[in-house]
Amino acid sequence: MNLNLKNPLAFFDLEATGIDTIKDRIVEISIVKLMPNGEKQVHTHKINPTIPIPDITTKIHGISDEDIKDAPTFKQMAKTFAGILKGCDLAGFNIMRFDVPMLVEEFLRAGVDFDISNRKLVDLQRIYHLMEPRTLSAAYKFYCNLELEGAHSAEVDTLACVGILEEQVKRYENMEHKDTFGNVTIPVKNDMETLHQLSFSNRIDLAGRMVYNDKNEAVFAFGKHKDKKIEDVLTKESSYYDWIMKNDFPLNTKQELTRIKLKMSMLNK
Length: 269
Fold this sequence. Notes:
Elements: E1 9-16, E2 26-34, E3 40-46, H1 55-61, H2 65-68, H3 74-84, E4 89-92, H4 95-110, E5 121-123, H5 124-131, H6 136-144, H7 154-172, E6 177-178, E7 184-185, H8 192-200, E8 210-212, E9 218-220, H9 230-236, H10 239-246, H11 251-267
Parallel strand pairs: 1-4, 4-5
Antiparallel strand pairs: 1-2, 2-3, 6-7, 8-9
């Protein structure tokens, strides 16, 4: 079908050095400009972010420092991009949480006016999540092909979970899964330890304020010490522990941090 357009609709996607719209920078932008008459214009450009691309990010989008060393910076291309997007509404997947904020930040840093106040913004992810709800009732219908009668009754919901897990294990057991880094694993097995690792992932506390990194080191996942080893932080800045204990963090987070602190004390005796 043809979309009913009054203005050109620019579908766009960004690849960047990371997901922090303040610290990170764009390394690639692709724009598919759909005109009201159905014509499509495709514009894809590599961008020199002027900062190193982390190896872990390169593994996701495949763009390395070598790939963009001779590419123009966003500031050099900003007026060109503004011209391409002039008069366009914007569309893409998850653009409200990442792509639009990142693009606006880059334009502001380049000193180029890019006003979104009069543009229509269409996020495909919002439509997807609205129309294909990720609820227990939807999961029961998807896996068991049954309507969940009496949803939100604790017993009904719990019994539904039994059926869903049985069907999930039956469907996915020993099925290969490739992650964003290209690593192939078999995440679902009829084994509770495996399913626990899949569900709890790398979290240390339930809120995810502390996690294990890819080296299995306990690190903070928030704030000024994000990605720093917890042991190093508590050693160099012992007051950080007191700050967390006195502030509005979940009791479970405080409990797990205390466990780490006590373990450190035992090892240092």
